[in-house]
Each structure stands twice: as structure tokens, then as C-alpha cells.
Amino acid sequence: MTRTSKLALGAAGIALLLASACTHRSHHVDRQLLLPLGAATYTTTSTQRFLMATAIDDPMPVFPTDGAADGPLRLCASFTVDVEGAVRDIVIESAMAGCHRSDTSGIAPFAHAVDAALARWSFVAAAVCTFPDAAAADADPGCRGDDAVAVAVPVRLTYAFVFDAHTVRGRAIRRD
């Protein structure tokens, strides 16, 4: 092989490498807490306050390497946060408006990613906080006072997870 053909081959290889590096697939996962119609609620009195469950650890689902979706894919999942703050009874919601059905072809890897992420979530449990009177309840919305009594309660939450993959094209920049 001549020096000229080696240089031409090398230049072609570099051009191919640069061209392939300029295009890649971007994967993004987003989430949103939903309040479905007819969701169960807690009724409190003027001497009580409801404290919502607060996430301690809530990693996002990992975009599945074997997942392929045309455009954004929206999966909805419901689960219970128990009185210990653990996630229980995870269900991929197939009948919610605006959410993809879990039995649709190609959805299984995404449903598995949501389920795996939710299984790792943990919370400070929701609670109903009771005070000696309404004035104390108004003065202590965080239920931190000595006269407040908090009782942990289970709560059912629903989240929508949106998986989006799209091609990103860049430009090679030539510097002299």
C-alpha cells in the first residue's frame, strides 16, 4: 500500500468517525404527579392538618436499552406509600386517559423501568396532625410543636412518566 493510499484511507476513516459522532440518540425521562378524578382524600377538622408524603429517595426510571418508541411514551403508575414510607402495590395504569396501555407492543421494557424505579423510592409517610385547638393548627402548619400529634396514614399516589427519545444532530467544527 502506498503512502498516498494510506493517507486517503486514514482520512476516510476520520471522516466516517466524525460523521458518526455528529448524530446520536438522546434519551430523556420526565415525571409528573397526577391527581386522578375520584382519588381518595382525607377529611380533616379545623384542629387537624394533612401532611403529604415527602420523597426521601426517588430515582428516575432508566431509559431501557431495548426500548423503542415512536415519539414520547407516557406511562402512568399508581402506588401506595405505607405508614413506614415504603412503596407498595405498584400498578401500571392502563385505563387512564393520556397514558399508554401497558399491554401495547413494545411497552414492557418501559413498564419494567418504571416498576424498578418505584420499588427503590422511599418517603416520609403522609400524616394527619392533630392540635389542641384551631389556633395552634394555624400557627404550626409543619406539625412540629410539642402539642401536635401526628399519626402516619397510607396514601395512594399516581405519577405519569414520559420517555422521549429523539435524534440529535451536531456539526463538526473545523479549526485551522
What class, by secondary structure content? Answer: alpha+beta
How many strand elements? 9
Outline: elongated
Count of alpha and pi helical runs: 3
Query: Can you summarize the main beta sheet?
Result: 4 strands, antiparallel
Q: Secondary-structure element order, as H and E?
A: HEEEEEHEEHEE
What's this model, at a glance?
By secondary structure, the chain is of the alpha+beta class.
Short key terms for the protein model shown above:
disordered C terminus; four-stranded antiparallel sheet; alpha+beta; 3 helices; three-stranded antiparallel sheet; 176 residues; 9 strands; elongated
What does this structure look like?
This protein has 176 residues and is of the alpha+beta class. Helix content is 20%, strand content 36%. It contains three helices and nine strands, in the order H-E-E-E-E-E-H-E-E-H-E-E. The strands form three sheets. A four-stranded antiparallel sheet has the order 1-9-4-5. Strands 2-7-8 form a three-stranded antiparallel sheet, with no helix packed on it. The protein has a two-stranded antiparallel sheet with strand order 3-6. A hairpin with a 5-residue loop joins strand 4 and strand 5. The two termini are 29 Å apart. 17% of the residues are buried. The C terminus is likely disordered.
